[in-house]
Amino acid sequence: MAGRAPRMSLQMRAVSAYLRLTSKPRMATAERTRRLMAEPKRPAEPPRRLRDRHVVSSREVGGFACHTVSPRGGAARAAVYVHGGAYISDMAPQHWALVSRLADAGVRVEVPSYGLAPQHTHREAHPLLAAVYRELLADVDPSTVVLAGDSAGAGLVLGFAQTLGQAGLPAPRRLVLISPWLDLTLSNPDVRAVQARDPWLSPDGLIEAGRAWAGGDDPRDPRLSPVNGPLAGLPPTDVLIGTRDLFHPDVLRLQQRAIAEAAPVRVTVCPGAVHVYPLTPTPEGRAAAAAIVDTVARGQG
Fold it and tell me: Does the pLDDT at position 4 exceed 50?
């Protein structure tokens, strides 16, 4: 007799309701997304409590800010963390909280502040990640490094990782992708079926943001939509996704490709969970965040 699927927690239900009321309307249409993109961008400076807890330094790399967050006792591992926000929004407190947890576990974290659309595009982001990664590898061995990100940032990480060989850069130890945005076009027919269940994301608004991020280039290009890119040569890759996430169908598409091509991609699906659920204040989110920290800091999993 098959067991019952695990129920989503009351906290996840509350987060879902809150997002549906407050966040989903902001990018529900292309017009609203254009208005959002036109708003002034706020700086993504590390919060004071992060600076009080860890060693934080900031510098410019190729004209963009990059922050290094290091544990006070020294770091045995390293990570590059690329934040989400539909390529139009900067670091949120939840991102900094995960960075802080990684530093607590002994990880040096590089946090590049890539330029946001519509003022900037992917054409500047990829060179920035390459420069930050090269600088990091001048100090540490790639076998100690994890490339990680969430949502748009996770898509950017995967697209970048697929180009490492062409750039003559070694692969990191692992990739960790939280709810990755894998296809800017959202053309997978299963996406629309998930739309009503997702309390946060809307295809029309995201497609408009993706168009701005593409900057006139074909949004199907693997650098922009890495679900279309090569999987051969990737390091072990962890993908975390919820079933109430608009990106779930494309993660399943990536998983199917990985199985067919024997690529080392492991997908964890959390029933009932919302977009970027490891960043949410829920039992599911806390468990996933702890697993991510173990993977990055101690090589677990």
Answer: no
